[in-house]
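FAQ
Q: What does a multi-component entry look like?
A: The components come first, one per line:
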Amino acid sequence: MSNQSTRTVLITGGSSGIGFEMAKQMIAEESTVIICGRSQEKLDDAKKKIPQLTAIQCDITNKESRREMYEKIFDQFNDLNMLINNAGFANRFSLTKVDDLETMITEEWQTNYLAPVMLAKELLPVLIQNKGTIVNITSGLAYVPLSIKSNYCATKAALHSMTQSMRVQLAKHDIKVVEIFFPAVDTPFQRGHSPEISIQADEAAAIALKGLNSGKEEIRVKKAALLYAISRLMPNKAVSIINKTVPDNVEDLV
Ligand SMILES: NC(=O)c1ccc[n+]([C@@H]2O[C@H](COP(=O)([O-])OP(=O)(O)OC[C@H]3O[C@@H](n4cnc5c(N)ncnc54)[C@H](OP(=O)(O)O)[C@@H]3O)[C@@H](O)[C@H]2O)c1
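Then the predicted structure of the entire assembly, as tokens:
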């Protein structure tokens, strides 16, 4: 099990999809799990399904909301030793059709890049004290962009780069920095457009946890490993292969 034997973990966006499945499986491993999300209804639902969870309402893009969450966490869980930066979303848009591009891309940067980096920075003192682990969730699309989710891919590529820097910077503080690259997973994230190759969230979470428990720093889940390999050998071919999955009439579908 990574660099600590007992986990007290905060999973952002643990009320749905992959984060919820990771929370469920970590509770089964007897970790203490705190989840957060914006919707109280989704948090209540998660708590109903897994009563051992601690669920805190928080919009991770809002500084004050993050501060309130930390207060609640430190009240009860001084032993916090893992942050899983999981909350994220993807907009689909075509540059020729999108109206309010600035709002769209700003929201994605705030949620997928800025918030994970700020959470890591703000929780650093307690994570250093507890010799903890920061886990950043990215995607196979951090290596190869899917054009219809262009800005999403850019945010994940940026988080990938930042994760590598964090790993180097924080090693001397005994902080482990892990990145999990997911492939397409059938969750609400896909907004009803799950590709045929999607895997289920419980399988994605189980592979991610196995990687975490074996101490890996980079965990490429299923087809994310294949995409990585192709992108290293034939970078341009990888872009054309992945974008062949986008239908020709996509501009009418977004
Ligand atoms: N599903 C895929 O195909 C796929 C593939 C590769 C990587 N990923 C990555 O895996 C991660 C989890 O995705 P998922 O598929 O499990 O998505 P999901 O089912 O849509 O869940 C997203 C979670 O994030 C929370 N969230 C979103 N914005 C938030 C905010 N501002 N503050 C706090 N919580 C917020 C949501 O709760 P609220 O809405 O209530 O806030 C929800 O709990 C994401 O980082 C995603 O990029 C997913």
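Q: Is there any commentary attached?
A: Sometimes. For this entry: The chain has one domain: 8-253.
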